[in-house]
Amino acid sequence: MYVVIAGAGKVGWNLARELIEKDHEVTLIESDRRRFLVVEQELEHAVQYGDSTELWVLERAGIARADMAIAVTGDDEDNIMICQLAKEKYLCERIIARVNNPRNLQHFKLLGIQPAVSATDLILRLIEHEVPKYGMVHLLDLAEDHLEIIELEVGVEAPAAGQSVRDISLPKGALIISVLRSDGGFVPTPETVVEAGDEVLVVLDPGLESDITATFLGNGSVGA
Amino acid sequence: MLILIVGSGRVGSAVAKSALASGHEVSVLDEDPLSHERLDKDQHDSWEDAGGQFTLGTALEIDALLEAGIERADVFIAATDGDNTNLVIAQVARKRFEVDRVIVRVLDPARAQWYAEQGLATICPTQHAIEMFERALGADGVDGGA
């Protein structure tokens, strides 16, 4: 596969190195002269000096025969332009763009620049995975004792909303220990009705988080 | 008619002032507060007193474009100092906000030509300069000289 990569920053340089190791043909383009000279010492002819948003620079790099164009410069508008030119002018079949500012992701989508990869978004998604729901806060982790306490805000469409504690089905190993309402917190009885907007504290065995969040957050769930 | 001009440099500010003087509603967006001074320069009234609008913000920020009135704009002029910024926001103005007339300044003749072929109204000062130089040389008989 022949890959043209625009931008020899940390991402671009390492990407080029990995692809070359996997026996792909790579041309990396860097517009900063000093950075180019540093990278050239290692990559030699696989790196070219120039502004990748200029047509002749892309053409010199062989964009017309590239199987893939990857734009990973530090400028979102440059990455959009490079991918747009690669795709629409040079009919490159596959493009990948880096999004530096996640707020610019909408511009990439609007102009059909997909996939657009944002490091911020990736880390956010990892956070969602680690903490399955935004509505859940870990208050206490007793790893050695195999217990944790979490706090959740009951969603409007949650299965638990409007149910008495007795009727809320919780997995074995989980217990509602407190309900916090505008007028203060209290320890619920089996008759206490949990309402949407309540905050509940639940003590549970680690690993039950997803069952608990499904019960209390409902379809406001973020999912993997 | 509302004219939204992004980029208040030499070109953007001059176009803004003449458009306002011709009785249009004009809104200018620029990320540099100093650029506002260009709008006031050599005018009797300040830009705002004369009826102009100025918004501080970057061109790619949707909030800034909204504040500058892009939803009501009849004409959108992209005149920042970055070709790529201009080409991206011009397309955003056209595709997302469906502005009737979008005019974009592109310094690089090659990009200007390709995007013009894609239907964007591009103005390329570099191309004009090239043609004027060529004409000047031709007029002096340089091209036919011995």
For this entry, give a set of tags.
heterodimer; A: 224 residues; alpha/beta; Rossmann fold; Alpha-Beta Plaits; 6-stranded parallel beta sheet; 5-stranded antiparallel beta sheet; 7 helices; 11 strands; 31% helix; disordered C terminus; B: 146 residues; 6 helices; 42% helix
Q: Structural class given helices, strands, pairing of chain B?
A: alpha/beta
Question: Strands across the major sheet of chain B, in which order?
Answer: 3-2-1-4-5-6
Q: How are the strands ordered across the major sheet of chain A?
A: 3-2-1-4-5-6
Number of helices of chain B: 6
The radius of gyration of chain A is: 26 Å
Task: Name the CATH architecture of the largest domain in chain A.
Answer: 3-Layer(aba) Sandwich
How would you characterize the overall build of this protein?
The complex is a heterodimer of chains A (224) and B (146). Chain A has 224 residues and is of the alpha/beta class. Helix content of chain A is 31%, strand content 26%. Chain A has helices spanning 10-21, 33-43, 55-60, 76-89, 105-110, 119-130, 209-217; strands spanning 2-6, 25-30, 47-49, 68-71, 94-99, 116-118, 136-142, 147-153, 174-181, 184-186, 199-204. In chain A, β9 (174-181) and β10 form a beta hairpin. The two termini of chain A are 32 Å apart. The model of chain A is unreliable at 220-224 (pLDDT under 50). By secondary structure, chain B is α/β, with parallel strands linked by helices. Chain B has one domain: Rossmann fold (3-Layer(aba) Sandwich), CATH 3.40.50. Chain B is 42% helix and 18% strand. Chain B has helices at residues 10-21, 35-40, 62-67, 83-95, 109-117, 125-139, and strands at 2-6, 25-30, 53-56, 75-78, 101-105, 121-123. Chain B has a six-stranded parallel β-sheet, with helices on both faces. In chain B, α1 (10-21) links the parallel β1 and β2 (25-30). Chain B is globular, with a radius of gyration of 17 Å. Chain B starts with a strand and ends in a 7-residue tail after the last helix. The chains are: A alpha/beta (224), B alpha/beta (146). The A-B interface holds A 53-56, 75-78, 80-81, 85, 88-89, 101, 103-104, 106-107, 110-111 and B 60-62, 82-85, 87-88, 91-92, 95-96, 108, 110-111, 114, 118.
